[in-house]
Amino acid sequence: MAPLRILCIHGYRQNSGSFREKTGALRKLLKKQVELVYMTAPHSVPAPEKDNGSSVAGSGEDSDPRGWWFSDTQARGFSAQQLCQRSLGLEESVAAVKEAVKDLGPFDGVLGFSQGAALVAMLCSLQEQNLEPELRFRFAVLVAGFRSACEEHRRFYQTPVLMPSLHVFGLEDRVIPDQMSRELLAAFQEPQVMTHPGGHFVPAASAHRQTYQDFLKRFQEN
User: Fold this and answer.
1) If we measure between CA atoms, which residue out of 145, 160, 64 comes closest to residue 112?
2) Considering its fold, how many domains does the chain have in total?
3) Considering 43, 153, 165, 173, which one is annotated as catalytic?
4) Is 43 a catalytic site residue?
């Protein structure tokens, strides 16, 4: 049985390499079922301001941080909870995903984390509305996802997504509170949910294996 090929969309201030490292446990957990393929966002994220001579980036931030869009169009910054009328960079990111599908695909599904999961929800909406024929994902996994607070993105949440989806979020997530992830569920029809007691990360303990496997085996051909 061939493994399912899944395109992986990293979070804000990450890149393909760092996200691959952070999901090593997930790859090991599902190694017989899936092949995870990683891509990098097209936008470089400005380095955070230094405080007392020490860079904030030193606290576990990735080198070459990338993002999928900016909610602060002037400072090229992003906050999931920032209300804004317009964003910057989303069109380029959708184009980058389409290019990745063309160059690295085909893919069975797509997985996104944090801002990447929010982007995945938008990609699912575009596919649902037949606006991007290059996108042909059969399922989506959204980890710590959320609805964009940007006014121009409201269009992504007006038509329920029929694509099968698994939504994963931590009950102690301080970056994307679980309530924000729950609000995204309304954009999907019959979303499957898996919660975990931890924070802002992709869970991959043995306790989560069965839920992942049960969801994925629906798409595996015998």
Assistant:
1) 145
2) 1
3) 173
4) no
